[in-house]
Amino acid sequence: MDEQKNMIAAMVLSGIVILTWFWLFPPAPPPQPAPQQASVAGAPSGAAGSTSAPATVDAQAPETREEALARAPRIAVDSPRVAGSISLKGGRLDDLRLLDYGETREALSERVTLLSPIGARDPFYAIYGWLPTAEAPVRTPGPNTEWTQVEGAALAPGAPVALQWDNGDGLIFRRRISLDEDYMFTVVQSVRNAGPAAVSLAPYGYVARRGEPDTVGFYILHEGAIGKFDGVLEELDYGDLEDLDGAGGPGERQQLVPVSDAGWLGFTDKYWMATLIPDTGQAFDAVFKYVALQGAPEFRTEMRLPLTTVAPGETAEISTRLFAGAKEYDTIAAYEQADRIPRFIDSIDWGWFFFLTKPFLRMLLFFNGIIGNMGWSIIALTFVIKLVLFPLAYKSYVSMSKMKKLQPEMEKIKERVGDDKMKLQQEMMALYKKEKANPAAGCVPILLQIPIFFSLYKVLFVTLEMRHAPFVLWIQDLSAPDPTSILNLFGLLPFAAPDPASFLAIFSIGVFPILLGVTMWLQQKLNPAPTDATQAMIFAWMPWMFMFMLGQFASGLVIYWVANNIITFVQQYTIMRSQGVEVDILGNVKASFKRKKPS
After folding, report:
1. pLDDT tens digits for 299-355?
2. Residue 60 CB-density burial (10 A; 0-12 exposed, 13-18 middle, 19+ buried)
């Protein structure tokens, strides 16, 4: 029964690892410091030279989104994929909805809101401006400056708009904003010096969130600040931002990262993000910042560019980009290639097994392009994975078949040596060597399933392409659990299934989790039940433990596991028969239902 012991060990290990990932709530956030009013002043920093820090947007009493939008004149944003507006106060990009994505699956559901103005729920916005030097301060536009629209009627692909502001002392600032067909804004900031003396200014941009937003709160997913700096990925959640220990202005904490060649930074949610992107080769200071304000703190990611000296009669100009949209794999990969944005695809949280999650998603998208259904694409990927692992599985199942054929010889050895465990081990090893059998080979395919399982779970959980993706019949969202429930007999009883957030949800398993348990149970019946009572009990409960553990996982993952069980069953049955092993599935099933006599 050594192969059964190895199988049990592998299955128990799988269960332990799955349970460690099945945490539903993050740890309690650290206590917030006493709020203070933020100051505009800040310490000098790297590439920007001796300048002040970017200013903070004026606070505003909570109100409805519509009321907050009406507080300032606006320029409409109208494209096939996004809609919203730009505030002339501060020139803020603070109103953006994603037209291709609804809050729910219903076609007429409210569109996903990404950017929101101060005063509305979950303010999220982008700010641009210029910083003067401390030695020669001049008036520059900030987040509360009133701009004038001087070009364009509405921002649309191929139809840019321009804003202008005159400081009254010889400096004329201009901001030209354009938008492509997807989610990339290009912001060109310029300043013309009509005064008598040269001035030195540093352009900047920042993305800010006022108050901590709602997050999924799952350990395997990063939500918060993110950046890629000279090839190094930096991720800070909102608790990390609160705990920053770098000095800023009063009530501010920050972390500054000098970037010499290429980088980007911003805020990411599970499916959406807003990211600042300087040109490749452009040095800048990346700043993660926490600002303690009255009412709600502000979280920021800042892009501070080097000082530029503008001589009298000359104009200085700097171009940067802002990605504000959905984290679609193909769209982000295209930007990475076309715009030479280094490792932009890493804005998707690939996890520890990135070497598997990336190709898995690419294969799923490839199959989906052919089949047109993500559920069937998952099943197609399962076939490919089993095909790749088949040589190893074949050796494993052949070795298991040899072990079963050696069972009579092993029983004779046990009878001959009695309680001499050392002698038993020696003779067993001699028998394995003579017959070229490996008792550990049976657990190898199951152990290989662990990283594959987690990688596919990561793909299904974090990638946008799985969101609201239908399969067949009642499965209309592969990223959500199976909506059917055994507690109401799958809709036959006149009451709804328990709410997914309730304790009863763990018992509210659907059709596919039950299929998972049944297929795993049938796979066990390829072998007789272990004679050892403890082993037999573990085997008996394992399929149903997995059924409940995975019952609230994404239905796409459960579909993969069911397909994997069925293919594995067919493979193992066929290989065992080809090796001359008699497989009495029906007899093993009947034996499992027989009541054992009390000892």
Report:
1. 999 999 999 999 999 999 999 999 999 999 999 999 999 999 999 999 999 988 889
2. middle
Percent of the chain with pLDDT over 70: 85
pTM, to two decimals: 0.82
Write out pLDDT tens, residues 85-99: 999 999 999 999 999
Task: Report the chain's mean pLDDT, rounded to a whole number.
Answer: 83
Over residues 59-72, the mean pLDDT reads 86
Contact 548, 510 (CB under 8 A): no
Rounded to whole angstroms, the Cα distance separating 249 from 52 reads 10
**How distant, in Å, are the alpha carbons of 81, 182, 183 from that of 156?**
10, 11, 11
Specify whether the CB–CB gap between 157 and 79 falls below 8 A. yes
CA distance 238 to 586: 56
Residue 268 burial (10 A CB sphere; 0-12, 13-18, 19+) = buried
Alpha-helical segments (H) within 463-532: 511-524
Average pLDDT of the residues in 378-407: 82
Instruction: Identify which of 90, 91, 95 has the alpha carbon closest to the alpha carbon of residue 115.
Output: 95
Residue 236: strand, helix, or coil: strand
Cα–Cα distance, 315 to 321 (Å, whole number): 20
**Owner of token pair 């980009």:** 321
Contacts of residue 20, Cβ cutoff 8 Å, sequence gap at least 6:
none
Q: Which two tokens stand for residue 452?
A: 């594959």
DSSP structural state of residue 170: S
DSSP tag of 345:
G
> What pLDDT does 396 receive?
76
Residue environment code for 188-202, b if the CB has 16+ CB neighbours within 10 A, otherwise e: ebbbbbebeeebbbb
Rg, C-alpha atoms of the chain: 31
**Rounded CA gap, 299 and 287, in Å?**
11
